[in-house]
Amino acid sequence: MGILERHDTNAVRRLHMNAPERLNALSDEMLAALKAEFETLQDDTTIRAVILSGEGKAFCAGHDLKQMTAGRQAEYGGRAYFKDLFDRCTEVMLAIRALPQPVIAQVHGIATAAGCQLVASCDMAVAATGTRFGVNGVNIGLFCSTPMVALSRNIPRKQAFEMLTTGSFIDAQRALELGLVNRVVAPDAVAAEAEALAQTVADKLGTAVRIGKRAFYDQIEMTAADAYAHTGQVMVENMLHSDTAEGISAFLEKRPPEWEQ
C-alpha cells in the first residue's frame, strides 16, 4: 500500500493518507502524492466529490518536523529548502480550492498546524467527537503563518488569532461552533457521515456543482457589487446549459431528471 490510497465508489473518490507512523504528516512524499492526485482529478468528470481521510490515530499532524530538521543542514540554514517546502504546501492547499469537485475532510484524532490548514482548505469537513484542532507551531517557536491563511478564512479573526498566538487546541464541538467543520459525529460513524455527505453532492448535476464551486471562491474575494455582477453572469451561463433545462422541466413535471452529465 502506498502513502496515499485511492478508492472510488459511485462517483466519490476517497483519498486516504496512509502514513500512521508519522501521524500522516505532510512530508515531502505526502505533499507530492496529494499534488499528483489533485492534478489527476482536475479533468476527471466521472468523480463528483472527494473525501480526504487519514489512517491511524490522527488525521494529520502538520509538517514533518524530522524532515524539516534535516533540511536545516542545507546551505544558508536550509533557506531554499524551507521556501520550496512552504511553496509546495501552498500549491496543495490551493489545488483543493481549484478542484472542480467539492472536497470533504474526514477528521479524527488530531489536526494540527498544516494539518489544521488542510482541514480549513477543504470545502467541507466532518469530524469525530474527540478530535482536537490546533495551529500550535508557536509552542515550538514557529508561528503558523501559512496555516493562518486558511484558518482565518474559515473562523472569526479573534478566535483564529487566539489559536495562533496561544497554541491552544479546540475540540470538535468548538470547531463546529466556529465554522471550521460542518458536522460532528461519533468516531464509529464519521466515515459513513462523510460518505453520505459526499454522495449527496455527487448525486447533483456535476456541471452545476463545478460551476458553483468556482463561482463561490471567485465571488468571496470581491466586493458585494462585483460579486453580484459576476455571479449573475455565471447564472446566465448555467441557465443556458441543456442539463439545467432538463432539471427545471423535470421539477415542473414532477419526475426525476435525465441528465447527460
Characterise this structure.
With 261 residues, this protein is an alpha/beta fold. The chain folds into 2 domains: 4-202, Alpha-Beta Complex (2-enoyl-CoA Hydratase, Chain A, domain 1); 206-252, Lyase 2-enoyl-coa Hydratase, Chain  A, domain 2 (Orthogonal Bundle), CATH 1.10.12.10. The protein is 51% helix and 15% strand. It is built from 11 helices and 9 strands. The chain has helices at 28-41, 65-71, 75-98, 114-121, 145-151, 157-166, 172-178, 190-202, 206-220, 224-239, 242-252; strands spanning 4-9, 12-17, 49-54, 103-107, 110-112, 124-128, 132-134, 170-171, 183-185. It has a 6-stranded mixed beta sheet with strand order 1-2-3-4-6-9, with helices on both faces. The longest helix has 24 residues, at 75-98. The mean pLDDT is 95.
Low-confidence stretches: none
Give average pLDDT, whole number.
95
CATH domain class of the largest domain: Alpha Beta
Q: How many DSSP helices?
A: 11
| Oligomer kind | single chain
Number of domains: 2
List the helices and strands and how they pair.
Elements: E1 4-9, E2 12-17, H1 28-41, E3 49-54, H2 65-71, H3 75-98, E4 103-107, E5 110-112, H4 114-121, E6 124-128, E7 132-134, H5 145-151, H6 157-166, E8 170-171, H7 172-178, E9 183-185, H8 190-202, H9 206-220, H10 224-239, H11 242-252
Parallel strand pairs: 2-3, 3-4, 4-6, 5-7, 6-9
Antiparallel strand pairs: 1-2, 7-8
